[in-house]
Amino acid sequence: MDFLRPEDYLPKKSHISDWSRYGIGLIGCGSIANTAHLPAYRKYGLPVVACCDVSEEAARATAEKFGIPRWTTDVRELLAMDEVRIIDLAIHPKPRLEVLRQIGQAPRPVLCQKPLALDLEHAFTLAEEAARLGIVLGVNQQARWAPAHRALKQVLGQQLIGEIYSIHHYMRSFQDQPGWWWTKMENFNIVDHGVHYVDLCRYFNPYPEEWSRVHCTTAQLKEQNAIDPLIYSANVEFGPPGGRNPLMASLHFNNIVRASRSHSNTWWIDGTEGSLWCTQDTLYMALNKHKNVIHEIRLKGSWFPDAFAGSMLAFITAIDEGGEPPVTPNDNLQTVAMTTAMVISSREGRTVERTDVLKGSERS
Ligand SMILES: NC(=O)c1ccc[n+]([C@@H]2O[C@H](COP(=O)([O-])OP(=O)(O)OC[C@H]3O[C@@H](n4cnc5c(N)ncnc54)[C@H](O)[C@@H]3O)[C@@H](O)[C@H]2O)c1
């Protein structure tokens, strides 16, 4: 079978001849930087020239662990380094505005951890401030570069399954560990972790129309640690109300499944000529015309860490070509609008329109 090869979906370096011209300065040396960003850059040979964290211990330990030549606790010091050409912003949303303003003193392209912000107002503020300061801002929705998601998108592009009419995601996991930031974050399961699947739903949508409205339900267990629900189910509509649109999506994420053997992360996409589905390591396709055949492809690579390299490679390539980042703030606003709408919908028990949450003509 030849419709998908690893080079079609794994991250790869583009035409850039000298990647050392794009020295990365990392801001935020926490968990995700150490477990995903830096291992990915090491694996794909991306140069990290300096790192910065308000915690001296975090900055020093990270520099030592990954052989990063310089570290600091002061963003301004990082910005004074000529070799820092790209900023990798891996801090939580709250301090991002202040740090962006510091970067504005000596602007560099910034790839910011997903989502741009946890709520729409904050996301608009960051997008507008970056534009005002002359900072090229990209959003690190790196799940788009996870091998399974890239492979699915690649096969979708081959139009083997006809007109797409259904996108379905089913995710089962567990993140109710006490004491971690995610159990203490408001609406974490939707606005932080769930934002990956909301964004992927938009990414897999093959049509130019954005989502129109969403209805979302959640449940909260009596004895759970997390302050907000860890399970959601969202029905997404594309097009006018009335139930006659050619595409719908349903997204279900149960993040409080204690029986870990039952965990999974699966997408199904149905078209008029067949169906595609994938777990994180295998892609399947069944076509109407071959009734007894399931095409099954074992995929190479994994979300952690490969997707983090894919996202950064694509960002640097776009900068090199003078183009827009692969995920612009405007693009990400449509994703954050959906998570915002899901929270409102679940809280108020009603369907929420995209245009209502985006308020105002320049924001729709
Ligand atoms: N798959 C993913 O994309 C993924 C997974 C996990 C976390 N994240 C995101 O990454 C971000 C960071 O998460 P984490 O788990 O690494 O958190 P963390 O708390 O482990 O790390 C954050 C680090 O930022 C540092 N920091 C805070 N303010 C700073 C400032 N002004 N300047 C420099 N450093 C500062 C902190 O000292 C800390 O070391 C969050 O937005 C989270 O949602 C993304």
Short characterization:
By secondary structure, this protein is an alpha/beta fold. It folds into two domains: 6-143 and 322-326, Rossmann fold, CATH 3.40.50; 146-301 and 330-356, Dihydrodipicolinate Reductase, domain 2, CATH 3.30.360.10.
Describe this structure in words.
The chain has 364 residues and is of the alpha/beta class. It folds into two domains: 6-143 and 322-326, NAD(P)-binding Rossmann-like Domain (Rossmann fold), CATH 3.40.50; 146-301 and 330-356, 2-Layer Sandwich (Dihydrodipicolinate Reductase, domain 2), CATH 3.30.360.10. Helices cover 36% and strands 22% of the residues. It contains 13 helices and 15 strands. It starts with 5 loop residues before the first helix and ends in a 6-residue tail after the last helix. The model has no long low-confidence stretch (mean pLDDT 97). The structure holds nicotinamide-adenine-dinucleotide (NAD). Residues 27-33, 52-55, 58, 75, 90-93, 95, 99, 113-114, 142, 181, 192 line the site of nicotinamide-adenine-dinucleotide.
